[in-house]
Every structure is written in C-alpha cells, then in structure tokens.
Amino acid sequence: MAKELTGKVYDIQGFSVQDGPGIRTTVFLKGCPLRCPWCHSPESQEFYTQLSWIAMRCVGLDECTKCLDACTKEAISPGKTTQHAVTQKPIRHIRIDRTICDNCGDCAKVCYRNALYMCGTDYTVEDLLSRLIKDKPFYDQSGGGVTISGGEPLSQPEFVLQLLKRLKECGIITAVDTTGYTRYEMIKRILPYTDLFLYDIKHMDSATHKTVTGVPNGPILKNAERLAKDGGKMQIRIPVIPEFNDSPESIRKTGEFCKSLGAAVTVIQLLPYHNMGVMKYQRIDDSKPVFEVEPPSDEKIQSLKELLENLGLPVTVH
C-alpha cells in the first residue's frame, strides 16, 4: 500500500494580515535551500523535525530533571546558572549537545512545561485542509484566504500542489510565499491554483547573493520573468538588510527589475530588518553565531520607499 502524501509543517498562523490581502491563515512548511543570516524563522531551514527549547518556559534543574533522565544519548546535561527572564531569580538550565542529539523527542515527551518541544509536524493534505477550512468565513468576509509559506514551500512541491488544488476546490483564495529559488517547472505546476505569489527579491548581484544567502540569484530572477510572462501575479518582497542591500543603488536596481515585470507586480513590499528572530536561534542551536545589526531607521525606509515610488512603483512598508 502506497504511503499517503504528507507535508512537514512547523506552524499554522490564523488571522494573519501580513501575508497577502484580507484575513488569512498562513501555513509554514519546513525546509529551505537558502541560509539568509537575518532569517527570522531559523526553525524553518532544516527539512527534518527538530528539538527546540524555550528557556523562559523551563523551571530549571532544581525543580525538574526529567529531560536528563529521558535522554538515553546523554545529549542533555546541566548547564550554567542564569537569571530567569521573568522572575529574575537564579535558575540552572540545561545544555543540549546538538552533535549528539538525534531529535528523537523523548525529552520533549516528559517536559510538562513544553520548554522542550518538537518543531515540525507531518500533515496529510486532508488533515491540513480540515484545519484551514474552519476559517473560511473570515476569508470570505475579508477577501482573504490561505498563504503557504516556509522555509521555501516549493521544497515540498507535490504536497503544496495537492494542497492548493484542494483549497481551490473549496473556493479559497490562495497565495504562495516563495524565495523563487526552485525549478520553474515547480512554479508552472502550481500557477493555475495560485492567485498570488509573495516573491522575495533580496539582491540583484548574483555573487553577493550567493556569498550571503548560499545560493545565486540567477534562477530567482529568471523565474520571476517567466512567471510574469505566464500571467502570474506577484507581490515583490524586499527585505531591507543593513550592510547588505539597503543602499539607494541596490534598491534602485531591484526596483528597475520589478518595473520590467510590468503589470504582473501588484505592489512592492519593503520589509525592514528586525532582530526579533535572534532568540529563535537559541531555541534550536545556541552554538552558532547570530547575525544582528541595528534595524534601519524610519527615515531610511521612507527614503527608499520614495525612491521606488519615483520609479512609478506602488510601495508599502511592512
């Protein structure tokens, strides 16, 4: 008997107003080929279910040692004593050796405070649809719908295709939030079932793009051109990252490219860098260096917005 198709989801966010028009439910899939240093959802990058740990939920080893006892790999050990973020009292936390941990989840099963939890749940298309269709009255009243995001959702192409088909059969407006880094064949397959693409363009220089994100931008730009030619609608998203792409020259080049896509581009969205994702890196691996810079000022963002508007482009800031 063939195994039923599943997709690995790390979050489902209802009443979202940032991921397309109207009130939406956004489904976040795990797995991404890019490694953007500023990623605000690092838990989305890997394709497998990961052990995560939220220090604020932990009661400390003086009150509970169940996770130490549950870990047969001895990947969890006593860590340093710090100050609790809420109570301000001393608390001795655990330490997770990620080189030993195999993400088995045994420790998460015994953590009654859910400080340890597994990030990544397998859903069938029908199971996920039954959750999403519950919000249909909100979609219908607001002109919203379902957005499939990531990670890079097209890294799970068959699951996304089947989910989009079922959503359209149910009369639900759809959007796909993508990096554009995939084979165009994947985009073309989902195009008939996708009302809107939220399409990221981070930098116009391919060498810089590859150095920083790990992949070149050639396929991303080419796919955007082909998508526009084939009748797709796009909201172009530009993350504004200090020391990477926040210069007027960089934004202008991106704007000129967007303008070349013509009527396919419904709006340009400037996404100012924020550091709210920094703490998430600590949840999945606190041994890696974290990218952190000062967010761009409101004045800076306004000047870049005006620059794009002077090119004749509709622009919003999110």
What's the number of extended β-strand segments? 13
Give the radius of gyration: 21 Å
CATH classification, class level of the largest domain: Alpha Beta
Query: What would CATH call the homologous superfamily of the largest domain?
Result: Aldolase class I
What structural category do the secondary elements indicate? alpha/beta
What is the N-to-C order of secondary-structure elements (H for helix, E for strand)? EEEHEEHEEHHEHEHEHHEHEHHE
CATH architecture title of the largest domain: Alpha-Beta Barrel
Number of helices: 11
Count of separate structural domains = 2
Kindly state the mean pLDDT as a whole number? Answer: 95
The major β-sheet equals: 9 strands, mixed
CATH topology (fold) name of the largest domain:
TIM Barrel
User: Uncertain regions: pLDDT < 50 for 5+ in a row?
Assistant: none
* Gap between N and C termini: 47 Å
Beta-strand percentage? 15-25%
Question: Approximately how much helix is present in the residues?
Answer: 25-40%
Shape: globular
Topology:
Elements: E1 6-16, E2 24-29, E3 50-53, H1 66-70, E4 76-83, E5 90-96, H2 106-110, E6 116-119, E7 121-124, H3 125-132, H4 136-142, E8 145-149, H5 157-169, E9 173-178, H6 184-190, E10 196-200, H7 206-213, H8 218-229, E11 234-240, H9 248-260, E12 265-272, H10 278-284, H11 298-309, E13 315-317
Parallel strand pairs: 2-8, 8-9, 9-10, 10-11, 11-12, 12-13
Antiparallel strand pairs: 1-2, 1-7, 3-6, 4-5
Helix pairs in contact: 3-5, 9-11
Task: Give a verbal description of the structure.
The structure is a single chain. By secondary structure, the protein is of the alpha/beta class. The protein folds into two domains: 6-47 and 123-317, TIM Barrel; 52-119, Alpha-Beta Plaits (2-Layer Sandwich). It contains eleven helices and 13 strands. The protein has helices spanning 66-70, 106-110, 125-132, 136-142, 157-169, 184-190, 206-213, 218-229, 248-260, 278-284, 298-309; strands at residues 6-16, 24-29, 50-53, 76-83, 90-96, 116-119, 121-124, 145-149, 173-178, 196-200, 234-240, 265-272, 315-317. The strands form three sheets. It has a nine-stranded mixed β-sheet with strand order 7-1-2-8-9-10-11-12-13. A two-stranded antiparallel ribbon has the order 3-6. Strand 1 (6-16) and strand 2 (24-29) form a beta hairpin. It is globular, with a radius of gyration of 21 Å.
